[in-house]
Write a structure and sequence with these properties.
The structure holds two protein chains of two kinds. Chain A is mainly beta. Chain A is built from one helix and eight strands; from the N terminus they run H-E-E-E-E-E-E-E-E. The two termini of chain B are 21 Å apart. Classes of the chains: A mainly beta, B alpha/beta.
Amino acid sequence: MSDDETYDAGYDDWLDAVEDGEAYYLEGPEGDGWLPPRRVDPATGSRDLTEKQLPETGEVETFTVVHVPTPAFEQDAPFATAIARFGPARITGIVEADPSDVEVGMAVTVGVMETETTGDRAVVFRPQ
Amino acid sequence: MTDVRIAGVGLTKFGASPERTGRDLFAEAGLDALDDAGVDQDAVEALFYGNFMGELAEHQGHQGPLMAEAVGVDAPATRYEAACASSGVAVAEAVKDIRNGERDVVLVGGAERMTNLGTAGATEALAIAADDLWEVKAGMTFPGAYALMAKAYFSEYGGDQEDLAAIAVKNHENAVPNEKAQYQREISIADVVEAPMVAEPLGLYDSCPISDGASALVLTSEAFAEEHDLDASVSITGTGQGGDLMALHDRDYLARSPAADEAAAEAYADAGVSAADVDVAEVHDCFTIAEVLAMESLGLFEVGEGISAAREGKTTREGELPVNLSGGLKAKGHPVGATGASQLAEMTSLLRGDHPNSEYVEGATTGITHNAGGTVASAVVHVLEVEQ
C-alpha cells in the first residue's frame, strides 16, 4: 500500500534534507540526539531542542535480515534493517548491501532510497 | 485497601478459526469465566476489554459495548489498547477500580481475530505497534524488531540460536497437555535452528504463531467474594505498569526492557514480595528472545544470564522456576488483545491446582505474569497469590 500522497511534516522534511546533503538531528540540553518531529526532549522534558548537523558517518549497532516483510516491502525482501548510531542520534534504516555482508560495527552513511515494492521513500544506510 | 480476587477464568482454544468473529470468541471466554466464578452477569458492574487490531481485522471499532452485549452484560464497557499488552492494561485498570471501591465485580479480558488477515496482513497489522515513521517505513517488522534486540543481546552478553531454541522446545513441551494451546506438539532443537528464517537470527519456531482467541476473568472485591461465598482462592496482590520510548533506536538499551523493570518493581512493592518469592512465571515470549528479556526484567535472572536458563533446565517444568507452563505465547498462541488476561487465567489455574501442568508447581503460593506491548514500550506485571 503506497502512502505517497500523505506528507508527514517533520519526517518528509527530514528525508528532503538528507537528499539535499543536509541531514540533521535535534539535540536536547544534555546532548541527546533525536529525529523530528519533536517539541520535547524525551530525556529531560525540556522544550529546548536545537537542530544540529548529523555526523556524516555512522556505525551499525545491530541488524537483522528480514525474510518475511510487510506487504509494503514484499519485493524488497530479503533485506537487512539496521540501527546505526550517528553521534548522539540513532536511526533505523535499510542497509544497501548484500545482507550477508552486513556486520555490527560497519561504517555507513545515511541516504534516501525508493523501495522496489511501492516506490515510497525509505531511510537507507550505505556502507563506506 | 482490598486485594482483588480472581473468582473465575475463561479461555477459548487459541488457534486458527478465521471464520469466528471477535464477538463470538469473547462471548465464549466471558461466559466461561462467569460460569467458573458462579457469578451472574447481572452482578457485573463494568467490562474492561483489551483489543489491538479490531479496526484492521474486522473493520470494527468501539468494541467495548459490543463485547458487553455479547456476554449479556448491561454495564459500562471500555476498550483498552496497548498493542500486545492491551488486556494486561485492562486488568491493571480493573484492579485499580476494585481497590478504589468503585466497583465490586468486573469482567476483564480481551480478544483478537487475526488469522483471517493471512500472514502478510497480520504482519502488517502487528507492525502498527511500532513507530510508523521511523521504524515501519524503514522496513521493520515485529519479528525484525525482536531480531534487532536478539542480535544486540548476543553482541553484548553472548548466547546463540541454540540457547533461544531451548526456550521454544521447552514451551512446546509445556503446551502438549494444554487443550487451550494452539500447538500441542513437541519440537526439537534441530527443528528450531533449521526452520526457515523470519528475521535473522529468529526463525519460524522462534516466533509465536498468528492466533485467534479470547480470554476473560471475573474479578471481585474480597468483601463480595466472602459475602457470596465464592470459591476464589487466588488474589491479584500486586500490579505494575511501565513505559518506554516508542522507537527501539531511541532507547538507552537495545538488549534490555526497562519498562518491564519498572512494572516489576512496582508490582513487587505493591504485593510486598520480591523476585525470590516467585514460584512460577508466565511471561510474554512473543519471540524466544523476549522470554530472556522478560525474566531478566523480572529479576528472576541476572542481566546476561537469562539466555541460558532454559538450556540449563532451570525454567523447564521440572526446573527450579518453571516459566510458561501454559506453553507461552510461543506454543499456546498469541491472539494479541487476549494475551495479557490469558496469562492471569493460566496462572490462576496453575495456582488453584486445576491446570494440566499444576503438578509441576504443587505447593506454589506466588506467581507472576508479564505482558509486553510493542518492543516493550508498554509492560504490565501482576503478582498472584493463592490461599493455602
